[in-house]
Write a structure and sequence with these properties.
about 450 residues; mainly alpha; Ribonucleotide Reductase Protein R1, domain 1; 6 strands; two-stranded antiparallel sheet; Fumarase C, Chain B, domain 1; Fumarase C, Chain A, domain 2; 3 domains
Length: about 450
């Protein structure tokens, strides 16, 4: 901070210095800051703004600083406020006043903007890769249990039979949309802000096309005011992450429910469960519970940044320093959660005996019975009422549908015949033979499509 206090007669108060410093969290941007600075130095030399020898001296110093940081030998100084000033000050120490020429035609405002965009691009790539990992685990589990039937639920009440693979592929679809959202975010992140200066552009003959090409940006920002004050791409990443974490939280919730004694559909691997400090019989789904809970902090980070940005006049304001801590936490939390959930799914044991019992003991074929009457000439609304009364009777008699006699069926409709007993879980599944349905052949095709999508995404 003291490096840029030229018009002031007093040094910053130590309390203010500590309060405004960002080096404790923005130091992780060092590889992007150095990469951007190296390309900027090359551009300055190319344009004759500094000499080629000066550029090489600067680049050599920057590469040396990068090694110092990677080897843990670099001293980050809070009084220098941020990663940019820490690197620049060290560069001047190493190469002398030539190092001060690096900041020609550049402001910390467009410098941090380019650093954040480079970081976000990498975060997007890593996020998509981790999404693919969880998708693969879901597809592997679905394929290994492609014949397993479970109760499908609405309102957390048993509704109709579905294939477990069909259920798992619902999460594949959610994650596919998440990956697409991150790809769209990449498009709006891939814009070069460097060359915008503090807010008005720069008064040098720079080559922004060169900068964009060398840093791998698809486009160049068209308004300098917008370029240095835009954090839409960070917000958009956090929106995409919030949706992704919401999906992961739903999956985690089902892992938690299904592993409970009341459901007992799955067994968690010991490596992803914990015991109780007082109850020796417990096997707690703590890892899944944390995945569920961490979704809240992701939402919080999004709301914090939206609130920070909502009232800022153009262009850069110090408030925007608050874009980083929550954003870094969002990236780290998403990547860790996707990775651990993929491992949980990959090690799940499906208790097929229990899922089969759950399907057989309920009234999951009620809709099929209504459809049966419709095919016999009844209107669906009347058929619905008949079957509702039939189920009420079966419940009162403590009997499942297959335990009812034909005479009992005929009490509710003369349209019932012996063929009512041909309605089974298997026939119910097979009847849902349309695109997106749970019929075995449709699910088999969906599995093949999912596997193909994963293979194509890896090429």
């Amino acid at each position: 901070m003291s490096q840029i206090r030229g018009r002031f007669n007093k040094d910053a108060d130590k309390l203010a210095e500590t309060y405004t410093a960002s080096i404790q969290f923005d130091k992780r941007l060092y590889p992007y800051d150095i990469t951007g600075s190296i390309v900027h130095a090359r551009m300055l030399a190319k344009q004759g703004i500094i000499s080629e020898q000066e550029a090489q001296t600067i680049i050599g110093g920057l590469n040396s600083i990068k090694k110092e940081i990677e080897q843990g030998k670099f001293e980050f100084k809070p009084e220098l406020e941020d990663i940019h000033m820490n690197i620049e000050a060290r560069l001047i120490e190493k190469v002398g006043e030539i190092g001060g020429k690096l900041h020609t035609a550049r402001s910390r405002n467009d410098q941090i903007a380019v650093d954040m965009r480079l970081f976000t691009r990498d975060a997007i790539a890593q996020s998509i890769a981790e999404i693919r990992g969880l998708q693969k685990a879901l597809v592997d589990l679905a394929e290994a249990n492609k014949d397993t039937v479970i109760p499908g639920y609405t309102h957390l009440q048993q509704a109709q039979p579905v294939l477990l693979a069909h259920h798992l592929l619902a999460y594949f679809e959610m994650l596919q949309r998440d990956a697409d959202r991150f790809k769209c975010c990449r498009k709006r992140t891939d814009i070069l802000p460097l060359g915008s200066g503090a807010l008005a552009g720069v008064a040098y003959n720079i080559d922004r096309e060169f900068l964009a090409r060398e840093l791998g940006f698809d486009r160049i920002s068209q308004n300098s005011l917008d370029a240095v004050s835009d954090r839409d791409f960070v917000i958009e990443y956090e929106v995409a992450t919030s949706l992704c974490m919401m999906h992961v939280s739903r999956l985690a919730e089902e892992v938690i429910l299904w592993s409970s004694a009341e459901f007992d559909f799955i067994e968690l691997d010991d490596t992803y469960a914990t015991g109780s400090s007082i109850m020796p019989q417990k096997k707690n789904p703590d890892v899944a519970e944390l995945a569920r809970s961490k979704t809240g902090r992701i939402y919080g980070n999004l709301m914090a940044l939206l609130t920070t940005m909502k009232g800022l006049p153009l262009a850069y304001n110090k408030d925007m320093q608050e874009d980083k801590e929550g954003f870094f936490d969002t990236v780290d939390t998403l990547l860790a959660t996707l990775e651990v959930m993929a491992s949980i799914v990959a090690t799940l044991h499906i208790k097929t005996d229990n899922t089969t019992k759950a399907v057989r003991r309920g009234y999951l074929l009620a809709t099929d019975l209504a459809d049966y009457l419709v095919k016999k000439g009844e209107s669906f609304r009347t058929a619905h009422d008949i079957i509702a009364r039939l189920i009420g009777y079966a419940v009162s008699q403590d009997k499942t549908l297959d335990m009812l006699s034909l005479e009992a069926y005929k009490q509710f409709s003369p349209r019932f015949g012996e063929d009512v007993y041909s309605i089974t879980v298997e026939s119910s599944l097979a009847a849902r033979d349309n695109i997106g349905g749970t019929a075995p052949k449709r699910v088999a095709q969906a599995l093949a499509n999912a596997r193909k999508a994963l293979e194509e995404s890896s090429t």
